[in-house]
Amino acid sequence: MLKIGLTGGIGAGKTLVSYFLRKLGAYVIDTDEIAKSLTDIGGEAIPRIVEIFGEKVIDSNGLLDRSWLRELIFSDNNARINLESIMHPLINYYSDLMLKEFVGLYVVFVVPLLVDSSIWLDKVNRICVVDCDEDTQIKRVSKRHLSLSTIKKIISVQSDRYTRLNFADDIIINDDSISKHDLFRQVKMNHDYWCVLSERF
């Protein structure tokens, strides 16, 4: 089984690339989607998060206050480590469960912090980096109504661009000058190559 790790900094375009890959027939396991399901109302991670961070982490509607938690974990390294200690084992567990349902030529794991994790580095056969410059990241992420300081904090705790690129077997360029058509063309080229490569796994 060929296992591709798809990664990239915040705002690089991993979601759009994974959407294109799904359209092309790839089996995609998105760790951000798993994390969201774990932290929705009734999510498996919620009791432990409340235990660690207190009731203030839940807003008046009974939802996880993601804005409050985001500000905390990107300004307090211990808080970020505590949250990761809750989330990462659950994400790994459910991604492995989803892998058992794999049907197709190759599987794609979408993992923002892939190159920071020995577990994920050992799990995948190839790493594909969706790459763009920092100005493009900031421009895109600012549309999510995050402050510039928050965006820069998020970027600062992720592996830097050149570290990610050093791990890359495949690179998809998604700077601001790249159209959706050009992005899809790159995705299709990688998809075709991975389909051929999958015969070796």
Topology:
Elements: E1 2-7, H1 14-23, E2 27-30, H2 31-39, H3 46-53, H4 66-73, H5 77-99, E3 106-110, H6 118-123, E4 126-131, H7 134-141, H8 148-157, H9 161-167, E5 170-173, H10 180-197
Parallel strand pairs: 1-3, 1-4, 2-3, 4-5
Describe the structure.
By secondary structure, the protein is α/β, with parallel strands linked by helices. 53% of the residues lie in helices and 12% in strands. The chain has a five-stranded parallel beta sheet with strand order 2-3-1-4-5, sandwiched between helices. Helix 3 packs antiparallel against helix 5.
What descriptors fit this protein?
five-stranded parallel β-sheet; 5 strands; 10 helices; alpha/beta
Please outline what is shown here:
By secondary structure, the chain is an alpha/beta fold. It has helices spanning 14-23, 31-39, 46-53, 66-73, 77-99, 118-123, 134-141, 148-157, 161-167, 180-197; strands at 2-7, 27-30, 106-110, 126-131, 170-173.
The SS-based structural class is alpha/beta
CATH architecture: 3-Layer(aba) Sandwich
Q: Count helical runs.
A: 10
Give the biggest sheet: 5 strands, parallel
Assigned CATH superfamily: P-loop containing nucleotide triphosphate hydrolases
Q: What is the mean predicted local confidence, pLDDT?
A: 96
Order of helices and strands: EHEHHHHEHEHHHEH
What is the terminal-to-terminal distance? 5 Å
The total domain count is: 1
Identify the strand order in the major beta sheet. 2-3-1-4-5
- What is the CATH T-level topology? Rossmann fold
